[in-house]
Amino acid sequence: MALRRSFFHNGAQHTLQDVLRFYARRDTHPQEFYPRAADGSIDKFDDLPARYHGNVNVEPPFDRKPGDAALLSDDEIADIIAFLNTLTDADLAPP
C-alpha cells in the first residue's frame, strides 16, 4: 500500500499523507477538498453521483462538523504513515 501512487476510486489522492489528511479533515474542513456550488455552499462528494451520497460513511469517527477539531493531528498522521510503511515487504521497497 505504501508504494501506491494513486488512491480512491478516482485516483484523486497520491500519497498516504493525502489519504489520511482527507479522512481526518473532510468533515471539519471540507473546503480543502471540495469545490463550492453555485450558491456558495461546499459541494461535498461532488465526484460521486447524488444517489450514492447515502453510502458515504458518516458514523463515528466520520461524524464531525465544520469547525470541530480534526480527527487526527499532523503528528498522528505521520505516526500512522510510519507504521504503514513498516508493512511494506522488503523485496518490494525501492532500493
Textual characterization of the structure:
The chain has two helices and no strands. 6% of the residues are buried. The protein has one domain (16-86). With 95 residues, it is mainly alpha-helical. The model has no long low-confidence stretch (mean pLDDT 88). The chain starts with 15 loop residues before the first helix and ends in a 9-residue tail after the last helix. Helix 1 (16-25) packs across helix 2. 24% of the residues lie in helices and 0% in strands.
Number of domains: 1
Distance between the termini: 17 Å
Number of helices: 2
Return the structural class.
mainly alpha
Strand content: under 5%
Mean pLDDT across the residues is 88
One letter per element, helices H and strands E, the order comes to HH
- Main pleated sheet: none
Task: Describe the structure using short key phrases.
95 residues, mainly alpha, 0% strand, globular
TL;DR of this structure?
By secondary structure, this protein is mainly α.
Topology diagram in text:
Layout: H1 16-25, H2 74-86
